[in-house]
Design a protein that fits this description.
The chain is an alpha/beta fold. It is built from 13 helices and twelve strands. It binds glyoxylic acid.
Length: 323
């Protein structure tokens, strides 16, 4: 019987059909550690991995029977794609259910940093009264009429553009290729070079994939180009931003603030960020809703069954793209 190994603990609703049809191994609450998976993998035909679980050469070399890696994420920077292709291993991801919740979080961070929601919440709790935030101080900025620069105009970038337009923002974007005119017109967005985007934007949102080309896409040079009133939002992957350079830019007033759902060094934001009032930090919660979690599991499940039985579409990951 086909054997499927799931590396993470997840609501089982989404996995019902998979469990009915195949021999599926789930971990306990903590998920399987890398070394445990390394030990088990030779027996398995399919690996269902989480976005932060490394599917590398070492693991794939031991995976004698492995035919499919079904990632629980839209991003797949945790997987050595060229090596998987070389080994004839298919990789699948979960783009659709991730799009709206991640765009919603990006918008939430834009509004939060701009209107200082979390900061005011902290002040009110600390002081215990409304005067903690005076009417003439701690002013936020509005978003209507402001320019949002979106870096990476895939599904999430486009979903964010729609939301931003609904808030009255102007949207410019940079992408590895320009959208067709019809899509640009429908979204009401304008393509622009990266340097110009950084110079013009009041808000910059990163919605690009993490590849070797996008590592530190936003670093010292980018911060020097941005407006001193600009707010940076990152809901994509941490290493797209040089976090040390970001901290310096925030301290020196090169930019106004930041909203971050991801961090350069994985689970740990650099300690200085934790003390900054003009920064909103969330622990990678772009898809953290019950419905999305279950829906992503369903898509993983459909990818596995579609791959094995050829009875439904599979969201296959295509080889590395250039930025
Ligand atoms: C989440 O980070 C994802 O890639 O889906």
């Amino acid at each position: 019987m086909t054997k499927v190994l799931v590396t993470y603990d997840m609501f089982r609703e989404g996995f019902d059909e998979l469990v009915e049809k195949y021999d599926v191994t789930f971990p306990g609450e903590k998920g399987f550690y890398y070394d445990e998976v390394l030990e088990m993998i030779p027996d398995y035909d399919v690996l269902c991995s989480m976005f932060d679980f490394p599917v590398n050469k070492e693991l794939m070399d031991r995976a004698k029977n492995l035919k499919l890696v079904a990632n629980y994420a839209v991003g797949f920077d945790n997987i050595d794609i060229p090596y998987a292709i070389k080994k004839g291993i298919t990789v699948a991801n979960t783009p659709n259910p991730v799009t709206a919740p991640t765009a919603n979080l990006a918008l939430a961070l834009i509004l939060d940093v701009a209107r200082r929601v979390t900061e005011c919440d902290r002040r009110l709790r600390k002081e215990g009264h409304m005067m903690a935030v005076g009417v003439l101080e701690n002013l936020g900025v509005g978003v209507s009429g402001q320019i949002l620069g979106i870096i990476g105009m895939g599904r999430i970038g486009r979903a964010l553009a729609k939301r931003a337009k609904a808030c009255g923002m102007e949207v410019i974007y940079h992408n590895r290729r320009q959208l067709d005119l019809e899509t640009e017109t429908r979204l009401g967005v304008e393509y622009i070079g990266l340097d110009d985007l950084l110079q013009k934007s009041d808000f910059v949102s990163i919605n690009a994939p993490y590849t070797p080309e996008t590592f530190h896409l936003i670093g010292e040079k980018a911060f020097s180009q941005m407006k001193s009133s600009a707010i940076l939002i990152n809901t994509a992957r941490g290493p797209l931003v040089d976090e040390k350079a970001l901290i310096k830019a925030l301290k020196d007033g090169e930019i106004r603030g930041a909203g971050l759902d991801v961090f350069e060094f994985g689970d740990y934001p650099m300690p200085e960020l934790l003390g900054m009032e003009n920064v909103v930090l969330t622990p990678h919660i772009g898809t953290q809703t019950l419905q999305t979690r279950i829906e992503m599991a369903r898509v993983v499940c459909n990818n596995v069954i579609g791959f094995l039985e050829n009875d439904r579409p599979v969201s296959r990951v295509t080889p590395v793209y250039k930025w």
